[in-house]
Design a protein that fits this description.
Blueprint lengths: L5 E5 L3 H12 L3 E5 L11 E4 L1 H9 L3 H7 L5 E6 L4 E6 H8 L4 E4 H10 L6 E2 L4 E6 L4 E5 L4 E4 L1 E4 L6 H7 L5 E13 L13 E5 L2 E8 L4 E9 L11 E2 L1 H7 L5 H8 L4 E8 L11 E3 L14 H18 L4 H30 L4 H17 L9 H5 L11
Parallel strand pairs: 1-2, 1-11, 2-7, 4-13, 11-18
Antiparallel strand pairs: 3-6, 4-5, 8-9, 9-10, 12-15, 12-17, 13-14, 14-15, 16-17
Helix pairs in contact: 1-5, 1-9, 2-9, 9-10
Length: 399
């Protein structure tokens, strides 16, 4: 390959900065354009499964992420009344999948990623409004009237992606009839002063709860899902009254109500679903992360899939750098089928988590327990294929 390819990454979130780190390590010229005035994430946790941690390992970022994150000694699944459905030792998962998962505050993860790339390759307050792409090059136009040109443009600008809209038109989200509440609660504010009584995934009628530690276990991230067809506001930053959460889960296990009562600040948002799109790439422009495959949160794979995208994109461009269009097509062939499958699996998992019928819920719980004991599926829910994947391996490029 002659001169370095110039890659413009639109979006400085988790996916965009991962892509930048991966591309830089392959010797490419990269610049990131972020619409916000600073690199900042909302105050929420993010789950990184074994697949995400292996991808970060390939970028030499696994250690820094684990240092600020939290590794549970086990993975626990419970009913809304507290009965344990399954429990898996983390060392078993690490042996089976090649890595243990990790949970981390989104802001902490973004800090690790931001510190892994030179500060001078990031332009802030640069909001992209459109892109133009072709066989010979690509350009992006910003709301301040400025324009840039690059050999390749990567849209990592989130669920309401301007890059995706320029390439393929606006998306058509569908309201799921489900909502989420979230809060971050200091362990020190709890009577038990520890994470263990609450940690895990709790399944109940019309809802499910995810509770895990972040920031070395000093904080507890709570995401509470519930069926509610009346609230349709998609924003992640709309606050709600704690009493609404306590009332909604008043019949769930007492330890959860104790946990919720310690949360001073709660947010609420509606969940919208989007079908997998048939293409990510046009000419010399492609998309990744939520811009390419926004998904429901029931598998905790949103960040993980974006991280995988960044690793595989860099590998594809490195392999076919003299043919940027072919490289982006290779990236899409390698990533779109898997990411689309994760989107659809997340959708079905939401229905399975919210079962109302006690009989149907019992059958689900028994199926999980039997599957874990008598098959190679360590998750008990058919998810092992997600954790087995290694985006940093040569086999991640297909075709």
């Amino acid at each position: 390959m002659g001169r370095k390819l110039r890659v413009a990454v639109i979006g400085g979130g988790i996916g965009g900065l991962t892509a930048a780190r991966a591309l830089l390590r392959r010797g490419l010229e990269v610049h990131v354009y972020e619409s916000a005035p600073e690199l900042k994430e909302i105050g929420a946790g993010v789950a990184l499964g074994p697949n995400a941690m292996k991808a970060l390992r390939s970028l030499e970022l696994e250690g820094p992420v684990r240092a600020i994150g939290y590794q549970s000694p086990f993975q626990q699944l419970r009913t809304w009344k507290g009965r344990i459905i399954s429990k898996t030792d983390a060392t078993v998962a690490a042996t089976r999948f090649g890595a243990n998962g990790c949970t981390i505050h989104r802001a902490d993860l973004l800090d690790v990623l931001a510190q892994s790339v030179p500060a001078d390759i990031v332009s802030l307050s640069a909001r992209c409004e459109s892109v133009t792409t072709g066989e010979a090059g690509a350009s992006a136009r910003f709301t301040d009237g400025s324009e840039i040109e690059a050999d390749v443009i990567v849209g990592a600008d989130g669920i309401h992606s301007a890059v995706r809209a320029s390439l393929f038109g606006p998306d058509a989200p569908t309201f799921t009839g489900k909502i989420c509440y979230r809060s971050i609660i200091p362990v020190a504010s709890l009577p038990a002063a520890r994470l263990e009584p609450y940690e895990g995934l709790w399944l109940g009628p019309h809802g499910a709860l995810v509770v895990y530690g972040v920031r070395r276990g000093e904080l507890i991230n709570v995401v509470a899902h519930y069926d509610d067809a009346t609230y349709k506001h998609e924003s992640w930053i709309a606050e709600c009254d704690r009493e609404e959460v306590l009332t909604r889960y008043r019949k769930w296990h007492p330890s959860l109500r104790e946990l919720f009562a310690a949360g001073d600040l709660w947010y609420k948002w509606a969940l919208y679903d989007r079908d997998p799109i048939p293409a990510w790439t046009l000419g010399r422009t492609t998309i990744l992360g939520d811009a390419a495959h926004p998904m429901l949160p029931y598998l905790g794979q949103g960040a993980g899939q974006a991280i995988e995208d960044g690793c595989v994109l860099a590998a594809a461009i490195d392999k076919l750098g003299d043919d940027p269009v072919g490289a982006l097509e290779l990236y899409e062939r390698s990533r779109r089928p898997r990411a689309s499958q994760v989107v659809l699996t997340s959708r079905s998992r939401g229905a399975d988590n919210h079962l109302v019928s006690p009989v149907a819920a019992l059958k689900r719980d028994v199926r999980i327990a039997v599957r874990k004991r008598f098959s190679k599926d360590l998750t008990g829910r058919g998810e092992s294929w997600i954790a087995e994947y290694d985006a940093g391996s040569p086999g991640a490029l297909t075709g």
